[in-house]
Design goal:
246 residues, mainly beta, 14-stranded antiparallel beta sheet, 56% strand, globular
Length: 246
């Protein structure tokens, strides 16, 4: 046993209460968690539940209730962790993720690498995490498949975040009438409606919005954006790139 500490067997349960997430750069909230573990020091199987009633991303005024369940494999010798599955819920959105939290030679701290999917979610829930606006710019159903990397470093969360993936939004609608109105006109024109029909039957476009999203160094980029208007064969392809500084 002394020759191979990693083979030391262990098992048990744990409870965390009132853990302040503000000690981690980029996030805030008060965490409670309970679970169980077993295995060896070098290979600890752990599972449990996490509850953060006031989770927020630093620099954003909105707090959300985040609840998660997880299964992970932990190397107790160095703290490296493989997240087999994490299922998180906030608002009306469910996020499934898996990946690693590992250290790397020459770097102080650990790098988070995750594959994240949202199959049934709300775009307003995601926007609320990263914007300080009183209301989200858009509402609608969202699907998302993305890879996320968060290296250690002194910069804030959003500037360290690296993200690349694809998204789709169904039934999308802008909450700002000044933005939504010209989109409605565009849809109505695509259907060949008269002026009177347009006024009686306003439409909501972006019902099948899809594209790619990436983020690096605090800059988010949307590309290959397209959307279709239900009930017509019209499709508009947006090939220009839009940069959003966050």
């Amino acid at each position: 046993m002394d020759d191979d500490p990693a083979s030391t067997e262990l098992s048990g349960s744990y409870t965390y209460e009132r853990v302040k997430l503000g000690v981690f750069e980029g996030i805030a909230g008060t965490l409670s968690s309970q679970g169980k573990f077993n295995g060896t020091l070098g290979h600890i199987d752990a599972e449990g539940d996490v509850d953060v009633p006031d989770f927020k991303v630093s620099g954003n005024g909105h707090a959300v209730h985040l609840a998660s369940s997880f299964h992970a494999v932990i190397d107790g010798a160095n703290g490296d962790t493989h997240l087999t599955r994490v299922e998180s819920h906030f608002g009306r959105t469910t996020v499934i993720s898996q990946g690693d939290v590992k250290g790397h030679p020459g770097l102080h701290g650990k790098t988070v690498r995750l594959a994240i999917s949202v199959n049934q979610g709300r775009i307003e829930d995601l926007l609320r995490l990263f914007t300080d606006s009183a209301r989200p710019a858009e509402t609608g159903e969202v699907r998302l498949q993305t890879k996320v990397e968060l290296p250690p470093g002194p910069q804030g969360f959003l500037r360290r975040l690296r993200l690349d993936g694809e998204f789709g939004i169904g039934g999308g609608r802008f909450t700002d009438a000044k933005v939504q109105m010209p989109m409605n006109r565009l849809a109505e024109s695509a259907r060949g409606e008269t002026k009177d029909q347009e006024e009686v039957d306003p439409a909501t476009v972006l019902s099948n919005l899809k594209g790619r999203v990436s983020a690096n160094g605090g800059i988010a980029k949307l590309s290959n954006i397209s959307f279709t208007e239900p009930g017509t064969l019209a499709e508009i392809e947006v090939r220009t790139t839009s940069l959003i500084r966050i």
